[in-house]
Amino acid sequence: MIKGIINYSHYLLETAVEKGDTVIDATCGNGHDTLFLSKLVGETGHVFGFDIQEQAVINTQNRLTKNRLTNTDIIQDSHSNFIHHIPVDKLTRLGGAIFNLGYLPGSDKSIITRSESTILAIEGILSHLKQNGLVVLVIYHGHEGGTEEKEQLMRYTRLLDQKMFHVLYYGFINQKNDPPFILAIQKRN
Ligand SMILES: C[S@@+](CC[C@H](N)C(=O)[O-])C[C@H]1O[C@@H](n2cnc3c(N)ncnc32)[C@H](O)[C@@H]1O
């Protein structure tokens, strides 16, 4: 079966990330991706999760506690400030990151990810990523402000040097109502 968007985003990370790696959940929300990443990197790895909303940080922390996972730091700050929160020894093992863009389901729909900070964060993460490391963007764009972010990200990723990065597009082109899609960026050898 063709994998759905969330399953495929996790599948891609499974192929690239190794046990012991450092990974970033750039938009924790309710912590589903953080939980997945925490299990993926194992006890020797570490997840740094970011969200600007206090409620998202609480929800994510609760989910991790319920699952007794302790290899995580959940930080209430913009992903564009990630560099200030990750110690150098962990940064050198950066194997992957996920951005689940848009707004927090069941919350204030006016608090959305924005292209400026998203691209700033991606750029910083790409410069620290290990070879073969992967950044996955899950792009929801049906909400107000979503089209602008989608277009900026398409423009930015199309211009990434193909000698340095593979950029993959994955999406369902016959679905109605602005379905989400994936852009995945892999750092080449
Ligand atoms: C689609 S939700 C993420 C869903 C999440 N991955 C999950 O599993 O529940 C997007 C999240 O991005 C957060 N966000 C918006 N701007 C942000 C920023 N600059 N830095 C970090 N998080 C941000 C929002 O607060 C929201 O919780």
From TrEMBL:
Organism: Virgibacillus siamensis
Lineage: Bacteria, Bacillati, Bacillota, Bacilli, Bacillales
Protein name from the UniProt record: Class I SAM-dependent methyltransferase
GO MF term set: methyltransferase activity
Keywords: Methyltransferase, Transferase
InterPro entries: MnmM_MeTrfase, SAM-dependent_MTases_sf
Source species, domain of life: Bacteria
Biological process (GO), any one: methylation
Signal sequence, start to end: none
